[in-house]
Amino acid sequence: MSENMTPGGATLRPRPLKVLLLFPPAWTPTMPHLATPSLTAYLRAHGVEVVQRDLNLECMDLLLTREHLEGAMRQVRRLFGGRASRRHGREQPPREFVDWALAQGPRLAREVEEAKAVLRSPAFYDPARSRAAMECISSALQIISLPFFPTSVELSSLTSAIREDVSAEVIRGAADPQTNPYHRLLDRHVIDSLVAEAPDLVGISVPTMGQFLAALTVATLLRQRGVRAHITLGGPHISMLREEMLHT
Description:
By secondary structure, this protein is an alpha/beta fold. It is built from ten helices and six strands.
């Protein structure tokens, strides 16, 4: 009997491959990258089931909320509110930066969602409103980054304390919620929905060095949740550094 036939003689059709394509932070959310959409279109044209997620946009949307900013403020007070910091052995932010964050945080928390809405509306083309919105968002991201100092999340990039071209450092950082600004965010709000897709193949696009940390964080959390799908990373930096990263 053929391996593609049931005992009754009916032909079994193989289950179609399901691909999950992910674009991780950090990238300019107002300029969607075309790598995963192009690949999605090609695969679908050839009968492959594809789920595409722009995690960069999703994460920025989650970060720029009143709830998240107020949570970051509580972390700042806990870590740096007293004269003696509790983050022993780590680089400390300047005291004036902490004082600024504690003073401006409540106002920015009230304004951040309206600022985000401006960038998604015709008000973006009003120079005064657009500039004010960008300044609010930039300041909000500075406070959101502060608990992970000196790592800094910006609107279009991530400045990390780790060396993204050293695989051992990236792997450690991907599993460390104390230094990784994406770990808890992805773990609490994103990963379960990716697991629910039950993919056979997960492809993560990494066009820039600043995306290594989030990409490895996604892969780490998927494995911790029991996802057995093959996970592959692609992009120009992966191609250029593939040999070096195996030995660093």
